[in-house]
Design brief:
The protein is α/β, with parallel strands linked by helices and about 450 residues long. The chain has helices spanning about 40-65, 95, 115-125, 125-145, 155-175, 185-195, 215-235, 250-255, 260-280, 330-335, 340-360, 365-385, 400-410, 425-440, 455-460, and strands at about 5, 15-20, 30-35, 70-75, 100-105, 110, 180, 290-295, 315-320, 325-330, 360, 450.
C-alpha cells in the first residue's frame, strides 16, 4: 500500500519514531530513523495528531489566533446510536453514509468508519484518508476564523478553502515539517487524484447552495494550498479563485451528459486543434496525417523504428520524423468511457507535441512534459473563452474539464515517458491549469525554445 509513513518503516503513510544506533547509551550516537507503515487505526490517530500540530503552529503565525483543539472526532457506522447529527443535516447513517463532516457549534468531526474511510484506505491508500481528515480540519479552522457561524460565504468558497488548507498541510508533511509522518514518493499524486472522487455532480452550478465545486475547481484549490500555503487559503473569502461554471443547456445535452459520439469527437477535435494553433502561432504547419490503428494492422512506425507490437499497445504518439499523430483504436475506446473530452485531451496532447517540434523546444523530460500539458490546457481554455466564435469546432460541456483531469492523472505521461520527479501528475495537472487560465504564452516559462516563434497576439502588440 502506498501512502503516509510513520517516521520510521517502509510502506505507506509512515510514522516517525526515533531511536539510537549503536547501543553505547552515551547519548552521542546519531538518532536512527525507523520507518514504520501505518495501519488503518494508526493512520487516523496519527493524522489527527499531526494536523492538530500543524494548525497549532499555523493559526497563530498566519492568522494571529490561538488554535483551539478539536476534542471530539467521531467514527460512525450503521450501528452507531446515537448518531452524531449536526443541526439540519442527516441524523441517520443512511443519510450520511460514505461521508465525513465538520459540525460547528458542537465543534466535532465525524467520518464513516464502515464504508468511506475503509474503502479509501484499501483502494487509494492511507494518504487519501489523511487528506479527507485534513479537509474537514480545514472547515474547523474556518469556524475558528469566524466564517461559519453564521455562514457568510457561498458554500463553494468554504469547500475549496478547506481543500486549499488540506493542500497546505500536505506540503508541510512533504517538506519534512512533521515530527510524526512522512510521505512516500507518489503520495502527492495519489492525494490529488482522490480529490476527483469528491467533486460535485456534472452540470451543477458552482454557486448552488451546498455546491462543493467541480473536480477541476477542487484540484486547483488543493494545488493552491500546496504551492502557496495557508496565507493564500485565508484570502479565499475576499479573493476566491475563479470557478468554472458549465451547466447543461437543454434536455438533449443532459441526456448524453454532453458527450459526442467517439468518431465525431475525434474528427472535430483534430479540426479544432489545427484551427486553434493556426490562429495562435505564426507559421504553424498542420499535422500532415492521423493514423488510427489496431495491433493486428500494419503498425505506424516512426522512421527506422522496429514494428514491435508491444510498444504500440495502449499508446497515442506524435512522430516528428514523418509528422503524423497515431493512436491505438482500443485505447481511444477505453478512454471514451471517461467522456468525449478525455479523448479530445489525449489527442490534444499529441498536437502539443507537434507544436513543440515546430518550436524546437529544449528541456529535460519533465520540463517538456509540463510545457506540453500547458499547451494542451491553453487549447481547452481557448474553447472555454469562446473567442473564436463560429471558427471553433467544439464547445465545452459540463464535466469536460474533469474528464481532462482524469486523463492527465490516469495516463501520467501520455507518451509513456519516465520521469525522475515522482510527483509528475501533480506538476502536470498544474501546468495544464496554467495554460487553461493564462494561455499559451505562459507556457514558455517551462522550457527554452531553440527557435523563437511569437504568438500572433504578441506580433500584433
Amino acid at each position: 500500500m502506498r501512502g503516509l509513513r510513520m517516521i520510521g518503516a517502509l510502506g505507506a503513510l509512515v510514522l516517525i519514531t526515533t531511536g539510537f544506533a549503536g547501543g553505547g547509551g552515551d547519548g552521542d550516537s546519531p538518532p536512527e530513523i525507523v520507518e514504520e507503515s501505518l495501519d488503518y487505526e494508526d493512520t487516523i490517530e496519527l493524522s489527527v495528531d499531526d494536523i492538530e500540530a500543524f494548525w497549532a503552529d499555523q493559526l497563530p503565525e498566519v492568522f494571529d489566533l490561538r488554535y483551539t483543539t478539536i476534542e471530539n472526532v467521531y467514527p460512525y457506522t450503521s450501528q452507531t446510536d446515537p448518531f452524531p447529527a449536526c443541526g439540519e443535516s442527516g441524523d441517520t447513517y443512511e443519510e450520511m453514509a460514505s461521508n465525513a463532516f465538520y459540525c460547528p457549534g458542537p465543534d466535532f468531526i465525524a467520518y464513516d468508519d464502515e464504508d468511506l474511510f475503509p474503502r479509501l484506505y484499501d483502494t487509494e491508500g492511507n494518504i487519501a484518508v489523511a487528506g479527507v481528515l485534513a479537509h474537514e480540519w480545514g472547515h474547523a479552522i474556518e469556524d475558528q476564523l469566524g466564517l461559519l457561524d453564521p455562514p457568510q460565504y457561498d458554500t463553494i468558497v468554504m469547500e475549496t478553502m478547506a481543500d486549499c488548507f488540506a493542500g497546505a498541510w500536505l506540503r508541510y508533511v512533504d517538506e519534512g515539517g512533521s515530527e510524526l509522518l512522512e510521505l512516500e514518493p507518489g503520495d502527492v499524486d495519489i492525494a490529488l487524484s482522490s480529490v476527483l472522487e469528491i467533486g460535485d455532480p456534472v452540470g451543477l452550478d458552482p454557486y448552488t447552495p451546498g455546491a462543493h465545486g467541480s473536480a477541476f475547481d477542487r484540484v486547483g484549490a488543493f494545488q493552491d494550498g500546496f504551492e502557496n500555503g495557508t496565507e493564500r487559503c485565508g484570502e479565499y473569502p475576499d479573493d476566491p479563485p475563479e470557478f468554472e461554471s458549465l451547466v447543461f443547456t437543454d434536455v438533449d445535452d443532459l441526456a448524453t451528459a454532453g458527450n459526442l459520439p467517439l468518431d465525431e469527437i475525434i474528427d472535430l477535435a483534430t479540426q479544432d486543434l489545427d484551427a486553434y494553433w493556426a490562429e495562435t502561432l505564426t507559421e504553424y504547419e498542420p499535422v500532415s496525417k492521423v493514423i488510427p490503428y489496431d495491433l493486428d494492422d500494419r503498425l505506424p512506425t516512426c522512421g527506422d523504428e522496429e514494428p514491435n507490437p508491444g510498444a504500440f499497445n495502449d499508446v497515442a504518439f506524435y512522430c516528428p520524423i514523418e509528422d503524423f499523430v497515431a493512436w491505438e483504436n482500443e485505447l481511444m475506446e477505453a478512454t471514451y468511457e471517461d467522456g468525449d473530452f478525455a479523448v479530445a485531451t489525449l489527442i490534444a496532447g499529441q498536437w502539443s507535441s507537434a507544436v513543440q517540434s515546430q518550436l524546437q523546444i529544449d528541456g529535460n523530460a519533465l520540463q517538456v512534459a509540463k510545457h506540453k500539458d500547458c499547451l494542451t490546457g491553453s487549447w481547452a481554455g481557448d474553447i472555454s473563452e469562446g473567442l473564436r466564435g463560429d471558427d471553433a469546432y467544439l464547445l465545452l460541456s459540463p464535466g469536460d474539464l474533469d474528464e481532462a483531469m482524469r486523463t492527465l492523472l490516469g495516463f501520467g505521461s501520455l507518451s509513456g515517458t519516465k520521469f525522475e520527479d515522482q510527483e509528475t501528475s501533480f506538476a502536470r495537472v498544474g501546468a495544464y491549469r496554467q495554460g487553461f487560465l493564462d494561455g499559451a504564452d505562459s507556457c514558455a516559462s517551462f522550457v527554452q525554445a531553440k527557435q523563437q516563434k511569437k504568438s500572433k497576439a504578441n506580433d500584433e502588440g
